[in-house]
User: Fold this.
Amino acid sequence: MKTLANFIDGKLVAPAEGIYIDSLNPATGEVNGKVPDSTAKDVNLAVEAANRAFPSWSKTTRAYRSALMIKVADLLEQKLEEFALEESKDQGKPVSLARTVDIPRAIYNFRFFANSILNRHEKATELDGIALNYVHRTSAGVAGLISPWNLPLYLLTWKIAPAMAAGCTSVCKPSEFTSVTAWMLCSILNEAGVVNMVFGTGPNAGAPLVSHPDVPLISFTGGTATGELIYKAAAPLNKKLSLELGGKNANIVFADADFDEALKTTVNSSFANQGEICLCGSRIFVEKPIFDRFTKELAAAADKLVVGNPTVTGTTTGALVSEQHLAKVASYIDLARAEGGTVLSGGSRVTDGALARGFFIRPTVIVGLPAIDCRVQQEEIFGPVVTVTPFDTEDEAVRFANSTKYGLSASLWTENGKRAHRVAQQLQVSVRGGGS
Ligand code: NDP
Assistant:
């Protein structure tokens, strides 16, 4: 078992209060690590270190920062297997997913921003012989970076890498549920004070970071309710704020779609990472002529997914991140039944064999619920649970898809190019609700 430490000014340090949280392996229910339960004292130390490092770091050349970030990417790549296994144990995701998506994308984040900073250009506008207006960008200062548990290293590096590239120093607060790979990353980041890591809970460590007067910029990815709290805390301090929030994404399948491709991709986009991805399609709308066949084949494919120990290659569906999250997901399956839905596949916790100790739910397909006036179709479940609903017309599909407060993403399947553009332009994604 690992005992994690905060990473402040380039050094691993114990939390000021000496208190730790048990972080469980979701597949076994056993303690996987001890995570510092940091407080404002630790956050203050980290912000001081980041502030001290800022003047010299922000003056380094782009070429210097870029080269350093490429080195970080290379070192991470050398340890890909080790990181993938730990991410799987920490979060419950299949190791194959961590190996092919999470960790490679974390590496890519460093490479991408290392290159983009070298190729940055800005616009200038001319005021006929009077003035030339141009953009001059400066580094903002210490960035507060708060990330969720579902794609732990990938989403955190999506914040760290652009901050480093832009000459900002940072204080990160990863999710208390999945801190291990962020802690492992500390051994690769060795410029003192440039990236600092404070582990712990949202209220104890995240909130003081958001309200810290010397942190002018907050980048947050997580739930919509938490995003609202952060918005309220940051607004009076006029902070720069980036919020990437929840989703309840529509996946619209027209009768003229390539059936096999739409089905195969829907299985993946609904159930990958146990449905714990903000972009997962969780409301599937299928045009009536193919509805029965599509739902039948989707349920059969969901039944074939391999629910099992996530560290074993071949497992396609791992464990949910925590018992508390499992209870939330299970409560929505109960609610679906109460709201008149029929469960075609899954619908229960795994209670037999070794998996009974972990937090496993079988991939679940539900039909028979109203598209709009129904909590299961409106609220984010964030688990391996999808609803499938028939529609008659294009207008109805658009109305159903746009009927939630979340507007993160949507997908549509048709072989008709004109329809694809027409419908896509009516889908209200990234313009309201959880969109960023
Ligand atoms: P949460 O909102 O619960 O937590 C996100 C982060 O915020 C965690 O580090 C959490 O700490 C911290 N936090 C909690 N409360 C506060 C607070 N008051 N002040 C500061 N920080 C706080 O989200 P989850 O971790 O449960 O992640 C799942 C959610 O994230 C889903 O809604 C999902 O849709 C969304 N998400 C959105 C993405 C996007 O790009 N739009 C991508 C991925 C996920 P702690 O862990 O200790 O609670």
User: Anything to note?
Assistant: Residues 95-116 form the longest helix (22 residues). Residues 146-150, 155, 173, 175-177, 201-203, 206-207, 210, 221-223, 226, 229-230, 244-247, 278, 380, 382, 408, 436 surround NDP (CB under 6 Å). The chain has a mean pLDDT of 96. The CA atoms of residues 155 and 214 lie 24 Å apart.
